[in-house]
Amino acid sequence: MTDKTLVQRYVQILSVVACYWFVSITLVFVNKALLSGSEKLEAPLFVTCYQCVVTVAACYAIRAAARRFPERISFPSLELDINIMKQVLPLSIVFVGMITFNNLCLKNVGISFYYIGRCLTTVFNVLLTYFILGQKTSLSAIVCCATILGGFYLGVDQEGAAGSFSFSGTIYGIIASFCVSLFSIYVKKILPAVDGNIWALTFYNNVNACVLFLPLMVMFGEIPIVLNFQFLTSINFWFMMTIGGIFGFAIGYVTGLQIQVTSPLTHNISGTAKAAAQTVLATHWFMETKSTLWWFSNMVVLGGSMAYARVRQLEMKNNTTVNKVIENTKDPITGEEPTMQKV
To answer: What angle do CA 293, 283, 11 make, to 5 degrees?
Structure first.
């Protein structure tokens, strides 16, 4: 019975990890096709906005299913509250920057270079944690970040040597990495506004994003581009747009599910391994030939990212142990920590 349960546990973990890989890799390839494929639309803000609209629609669909099958599906109420929208707005502004620059990076660089172009999230996490939260980082973590920076520099150098380097795409990737780090910090601050419910936050965030994208599309002249787009009535185009939106919504769910059935560290390792598989798949799919140093730069970034995840796990474990020791040594009556008395 124990062996069977263990096997079932492994099957569940492998299924969830495989689902995460499938959704994440498919989303990257679908967005790449939309932004620079045969039916590409030169309006990245509109593409991103539409995916936010699909996410909002998906939230309403799941809410309707939850009302019909409350014993099987749980989903928060989706009644719009203006006050909550205002509280979530700062996060939504960062969110719009994050997904916009992410798509602009993907539009201007190949999928094989996409991971290198977006690899500085960990470095920005360390910097923003220090400057915004005032939390210091260990020397081991800083060494890992330095390794990632070295891999990034080598990757950019090799991409330039191959003649496929995009300066704008790389800058967009750096900005997107910064926004991802800033977004993760703001999420913790904004979650209490929606009673800690991540789905409610997803809903309000995407509703705000839809509103924010409208003036941006007008400002950057995308409305005429969309109206004059030759494939505007193409079923295939709207199918791909909708699939991108659905997978954009799904990635949030499968990410949370993977963390739930494994651990944050395993999720980070899985994401890093997924990026490596995505890079290999992209080079084969687009029949790209890369130099040995180019591949080495990827390995350096991957190694630095995995090492950082391991260092952070050990630090959190040590901090938890220290806190438990302090808690156990407190006076059971006064709650005070023991002090050294002079003799």
So the answer is: 105
Q: Comparing C-alpha atoms, which of 254, 312, 308, 273 is closest to residue 13?
A: 254
Integer Cα distance of 220 and 130 in angstroms: 35
Measured distance CA(217)–CA(44) in Å, rounded? 9
The amino acid that residue 247 corresponds to is F
H or E element that contains 236: helix 235-261
User: Across the 343 residues of the chain, what is the mean pLDDT of every consecutive 10-residue run?
Assistant: 68 88 91 83 91 93 90 85 92 91 88 83 86 84 92 90 87 90 84 86 92 93 91 90 91 79 71 83 87 90 87 78 54 46 37
- C-alpha 83/C-alpha 75 separation (Å) is 21
C-alpha to C-alpha distance for 7 and 165, rounded to whole angstroms = 46
Rounded CA separation 111/91 (Å) = 27
Q: What is the DSSP string of 251-307?
A: HHHHHHHHHHHS-HHHHHHHHHHHHHHHHHHHHHHTT----HHHHHHHHHHHHHHHH
Tokens describing residue 267:
């999720």
Residues in the chain: 343
d(CA 193, CA 83): 9
| Half-sphere exposure of residue 280: CA atoms within 13 angstroms, side-chain side | 8
Is residue 288 within 8 A of residue 110, CB to CB? The reply is yes
